[in-house]
């Protein structure tokens, strides 16, 4: 019981302490090994039908961060942070479904029959990779993995800031991101050099409805 309480308290600290930081220690680097561990933890996030369409472009080369700076409207965290991770959604995520489900069968998590049925269903869902339903699925899963990445980073003593301010067309051109991938967001990650600005949240009572949404006045 005490272990469970301790874990709950630790999680509460991570959630409450995570804020969007925009000033970073430019001398701090995150090794490829640790970044890989962070991303591994992030990929434990939920995924629709376990397709896992998230893809990560880690930009930690100083020259490439300089290249990214004007694309991200000169937000200084781009060059100060240890890395900027572009969270992408693979609109042809079904291409890895056979690999994923075969591993699940081998692990004893599903039968061959269920695997076959799941693949059949997915082929219908992904029939048009450019469809809004596929884009929406990639956005949902990409957002889930993004939040998990930021929480995992905070738990390790790092800070992050999710970024929606960038020129997507220029980003695609500069980093050769094809139309196969949707761009979900950029996330800067590193050691904070300055605390984040404090923010407030609406009372949960004002944003929660129980069983029905009241009519607007």
TrEMBL record:
Its EC number is 1.-.-.-. It holds the Pfam family Nitroreductase. It comes from the Bacteria. GO terms for molecular function: oxidoreductase activity. Residues 15-191 form the Nitroreductase domain. It is an enzyme of class 1 (oxidoreductase). The keyword Ligase does not apply. Keywords: Oxidoreductase. PANTHER family: NAD(P)H NITROREDUCTASE YDGI-RELATED, NAD(P)H NITROREDUCTASE YODC-RELATED. Belongs to the nitroreductase family. This is NAD(P)H nitroreductase YodC. It comes from Paenibacillus allorhizosphaerae. The gene is yodC_1.
């Amino acid at each position: 019981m005490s272990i469970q309480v301790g874990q709950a308290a630790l999680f509460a600290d991570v959630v409450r302490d995570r804020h969007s930081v925009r000033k970073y220690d430019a001398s701090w680097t995150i090794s490829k090994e640790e970044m890989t561990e962070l991303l591994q933890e992030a990929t434990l996030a939920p995924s629709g039908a376990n397709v896992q369409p998230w893809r990560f472009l880690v930009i930690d080369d100083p020259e490439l961060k300089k290249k990214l700076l004007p694309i991200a409207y000169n937000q200084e965290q781009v060059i100060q942070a240890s890395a900027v991770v572009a969270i992408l959604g693979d609109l042809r995520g079904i291409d890895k479904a056979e690999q994923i489900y075969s591993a699940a069968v081998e692990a004893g998590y599903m039968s061959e029959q269920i695997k076959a049925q799941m693949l059949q269903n997915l082929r219908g869902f992904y029939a048009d990779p450019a469809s809004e339903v596929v884009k929406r699925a990639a956005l949902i899963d990409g957002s889930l993995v993004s939040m998990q990445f930021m929480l995992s980073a905070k738990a390790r003593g790092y800070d992050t800031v999710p970024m929606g301010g960038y020129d997507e067309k220029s980003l695609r051109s500069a980093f050769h991101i094809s139309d196969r991938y949707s761009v979900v967001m950029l996330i800067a990650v590193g050691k904070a050099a300055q605390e984040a600005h404090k923010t407030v949240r609406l009372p949960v009572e004002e944003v929660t409805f129980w069983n029905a949404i009241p009519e607007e006045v």
